[in-house]
Amino acid sequence: MTEGIQLFEQEKFEQALEKFKNVIEADPDNPEANLFLGMTYSKLESFPKALDILHRASIRHPQNIEILLNLGITHYSLSEFETALDILEKVLKIDPGNASSQLFKGLCQLALGEHEKAIQSFDSAHKINPEFEQLSLFNQGLAHFKNESFEQAQKMFQAAIDSNPDTEMVV
Q1: pLDDT at 117 over 60
Q2: Could you give the CA distance from residue 125 to residue 141 in angstroms, rounded to a whole number?
Q3: What secondary structure does DSSP assign to the chain, as a single string?
Q4: Is the overall model pTM greater than 0.85, yes or no?
Q5: pLDDT tens, residue by residue, 135-153
Q6: What CA–CA distance (Å, rounded) separates 31 from 22?
């Protein structure tokens, strides 16, 4: 398992895939192996396979936040925003302080045209995890822009730039 995680972190996804498959062959209910196998398929953009693995893992481990979060993210990646939103809400019921879930919840709401809700979710993600500040402000700007609140959008975009002017998002 450790070797597979190291390969995953080194972005050697094909090799990591084989390691995780071997772990699951020996222990099909291993939640960590199922999580990493699903994430690896996602990194390889094999979203249907990732979805299958993560869905089955979520049935066996319905309280596992990381499995549920990655299942929600995979649905988001497939533009299945309502399904993703339902799963992300489950994560937040288990762990209200999950900033990643709040962020992806906002992205789903933004895609569904629920701009005001998205703004609240992005703001919550930033309050939970200050490292999400720039991303949150930028996405709030997008939501205001889509809501045709151009002055507020401009303020959010400027705040995103000002929060960290040296990131790739700004350059």
Answers
A1: yes
A2: 15
A3: -HHHHHHHHTT-HHHHHHHHHHHHHH-TT-HHHHHHHHHHHHHTT-HHHHHHHHHHHHHH-TT-HHHHHHHHHHHHHTT-HHHHHHHHHHHHHH-TT-HHHHHHHHHHHHHTT-HHHHHHHHHHHHHH-GGGHHHHHHHHHHHHHHTT-HHHHHHHHHHHHHH-TTSTTT-
A4: yes
A5: 999 999 999 999 999 999 9
A6: 14
